[in-house]
Write a structure and sequence with these properties.
Elements: E1 3-7, E2 10-12, E3 18-25, E4 33-39, E5 45-51, E6 58-60, E7 68-73, E8 78-83, E9 92-102, E10 105-110, E11 114-118
Parallel strand pairs: 2-11
Antiparallel strand pairs: 1-3, 3-8, 4-5, 4-9, 5-6, 7-8, 9-10, 9-11
Length: 119
């Protein structure tokens, strides 16, 4: 049974910090390319950040670069998003997403989302 479960969302004031976690189970987490995406009310889903399996490659959207830090601990099957200097425009439902290949087949997974509110 494949699962991605996010946690750590909540409320923060502008300039504050939150850390999101995403724990995977039921699939090859340590070989999965993992990402965070978000969706603000009335807006389309926006990609936030991604990290590859060995953490050597990390990329960020311009809107969060320098404020957010993505990381993962494959021993715990968990990915993190440290969010600092939060802004009101960071308010959104945050999703974790992962995909990996088995042979030529691609498998992808979504979490249920965790709400972040900055006000």
């Amino acid at each position: 049974h494949v699962q991605l479960v996010e946690s750590g969302g909540g409320s923060a004031q502008p300039g504050g910090s939150l850390t999101l976690s995403c724990t995977g189970s039921g699939f090859l987490f340590n070989s999965a390319f993992m990402s965070w995406l978000r969706q603000a009310p009335g807006k389309e889903v926006e990609w936030v950040s991604s990290i590859n399996g060995n953490s050597k490659n990390k990329v960020y959207a311009d809107s969060v670069k320098g404020r957010f830090t993505i990381s993962r601990d494959n021993r715990k099957n968990t990915m993190y998003l440290q969010m600092d200097n939060l802004k009101s425009e960071d308010t959104a439902l945050y999703y974790c997403y992962g995909f990996h290949w088995v042979g030529s087949l691609e498998y992808n997974y979504w979490g249920q989302g965790t709400q972040v509110t900055v006000s």
